[in-house]
Write a structure and sequence with these properties.
The protein is built from 5 helices and no strands. It is mainly alpha-helical. It is elongated.
């Protein structure tokens, strides 16, 4: 199926002469930039997951759900707890709105006197004694030889006593 010459579109003579005299060497070099960037494999994967999720939600059948009963676990306070809360709240209000001007001045008396000097001295002596025992230097001791003053009888003496 080749097209015949008469079927081809007619070109204006001026344009035809310009096309024939055109020199490609006079053209400027240009870098081509692709403006329609293709998505990455990760983008395609995320889009596919998203569309599957949407399709799953849209095609979900509610008949497959099971009926459940919810139980509320909120326990209301009983009368005793409410009474305690009111008492506590009244105490807090009393403390917050207390009028200090109604207070009377008082004299403080010390009821826990310090111990007398003799008791302090006895306690110091006791602490010094304990410290002396705890910090005793065993290197200051002299070496001694132990002598038995009540020697055990010999074997012969034991045999003689058995015979007698």
């Amino acid at each position: 199926m080749s097209t015949s010459l008469k079927d081809l579109p007619k070109v204006n003579v001026d344009l035809k002469s310009e096309l024939e005299g055109f020199k490609t060497g006079s053209m400027k070099k240009a870098e081509t930039q692709e403006k329609n960037v293709l998505p990455t494999a990760e983008d395609v994967k995320q889009e596919r997951q998203h569309s599957e999720l949407i399709q799953g939600v849209e095609s979900f059948k509610t008949e497959r759900l099971k009926r459940t009963n919810t139980q509320e676990k909120i326990v209301l306070p009983n009368a005793q707890v409410v009474k305690q809360e009111k008492v506590h709240q009244n105490l807090l209000e009393g403390v917050e709105h207390f009028d200090k001007a109604t207070m009377k001045p008082t004299q403080t008396q010390e009821k826990n006197p310090l111990p007398d000097p003799e008791a302090i001295e006895q306690e110091k002596e006791k602490q010094n004694l304990i410290a002396g025992i705890e910090n005793f230097d065993t290197k200051k001791l002299k070496h001694t030889e132990t002598q038995e003053k009540n020697p055990l009888p010999t074997k012969e003496a034991i045999d003689e006593e058995k015979k007698a």
